Amino acid sequence: MDILEVKGGSKLEGTVRSAGAKNAMTKLLVASLLSNKKCIFHNVPNIGDVEITVNLCKEIGSEVQWDRENGILEIITKELKTSYIPQRFSGANRIPILMLGALLGRTTEDVIIPTVGGDAIGVRSVDFHIASLQKLGATIEYREMRKEGAYLAHAHNGLFGNHIHLPYPSIGATENTILAGVRAQGHTTITNAATEPEIVDIILFLQKMGAHIQMDANRTIRIEGNTISNEVVHTVLTDRIEAASFGMAAIATKGRVFVERAQHAPMLTFLNHIRDIGGGFKVQDDGIEFFYDGPLKGGAHIETDVHPGFMTDWQQPFAVLLTQAEGASVIHETVYDNRFGYTKTLKEMGADIELFKECLGAKCCRYALQNYLHSVIVRGQTKLVGKEIAIPDLRAGFAYVMAALIAKGTSYISGAAFLDRGYEQLVPKLQKLGAEIQRIQTKPDTTPIKPIIPPVKIKANTLSGK
Q1: 159-168, pLDDT tens digit by residue?
Q2: Catalytic residues
Q3: Are 150 and 456 within 8 A, CB to CB?
Q4: What's the CATH number of domain 3-19+238-440, 3.40.640.10, 3.40.309.10, 3.65.10.10, 3.40.50.11540?
C-alpha cells in the first residue's frame, strides 16, 4: 500500500480545478442502467469509486468508453446479461445496494445484491431502502451466501407507484426509491426525502432521460413512472467536498488558493462557517478563492445535518482547521454514529479535542442517550507535530493530510488508496499548490479495501425502522 510523505510548513498558493462530484457520478452511472439508450457524461472524476462502479456496470452488461484525461464517459446498457452482482463487490463501496432500485425497475427477474459497504464510519442501515422498495411492490429478503450476506429481490409483476414516507431523509434511500419509482407503473410520492445537490443532479439527468419527476416544498418528490426513452448528454456538478477540502487547506496553511469550478450555492452553509471563524473567501463567476485573512477565532458551533445543513463530510477537515483557531469550538455529529474515530490520531499529533456522548448542539439528535461519542470540543490554537498515520476512511484521510501540511516535521501516511476513491490526482494537485508531499510506492498490495461493516439482517416485511 502506497505511503504519502508530507513535510509540514508550506503555504498552499495557486489555482486548482475541482473535479466532478463522486457522490453524483457514481449514482448517475447506476441511473443510466434504467435505459437501453446511450448516456454521455462530462466532468467525470477519475477516481477509485467511479472505477469500481464502472466495473460493476460492465459486470451486468454495460458497454463503457471512458476518456479519463478529458473526463468524458459514454455508457449504454442495451440489455442486462445478469442481475446478479458478484460477492467480490461486497463492501467495495455503497453502490451495490443502489442497484436494487435500478435493476428492479429494469427487469422482472430475480436480483441478487451483496451487502452494503463503504467507509467504517457508523452503521449504514438499509431498512429504509428495503421498506420503500417493498411498498413499490418488490419482494426482498436477506440471506447468508458463501459466508457473506446478500439481498435477494424481485418484482415479477413489475413495480407500482405508492406513497413513500422516509422516517429520516436518507440520501441512499431517497436515491433508491427514485430509481425504482421512475420505472414503476403510476404515481410515486416520496415525502421527507433527502434534497442534496447530488440528488438534484440525478433528478435533472432522469428528466433529460424522459422521466416525469419534480421536487416540491417540504422535501417532497413526485414521479410519474415508466417514461424513460431518451439518449442523454449530462455534465456532472462539481464536487463540493473536494472544493471545500482545498479551501480549508488553503486557510489552515495561511495561504491563498483559487478553486476553479467551485459552486457557490451548494457550499452556502460551509462558507458561512468559514466566515464565522475569520477565514477569507471570494466568490467569482468561475470558482471560489479561499485565503487566510488574519488569526482564526474559535467559538464556532457546528452541527452536521442533511442538506441544506453542514455536510458530515466537511467536518473532519474543519476540525483540523479549528485546531488553528483561538478558543473553543463545538462539532455535533448527527448523521453517523461513529465519525469521530479520526480524532484519536489528531490528539496524538497535539490537537486538544475532547469527545462527548451528549448532544452538544441546539437540538437533540437521534443518537441522544445512545452512548455514542458524537460531539467534540476542539480547543485551539495548538501546534501539531508530524507522525506516522494510518488512514481509516476517505474523509478522515484528507483531514490527516491537511493536519500533516500544518504540522512541524514530516508525517508518513499509509492507506493512500482510500484517498484515491474520492480525490482526483490529490498529490499532483497539492504539489502544484506548493505542498511538500510525495507518494512513495511500496510493494504491491492486492488486498481490496473492505472495511468490516456488519450487515443489517432483515426479513421481508419485518423491519426495525432504524
Answers
A1: 999 999 999 9
A2: 119
A3: no
A4: 3.65.10.10
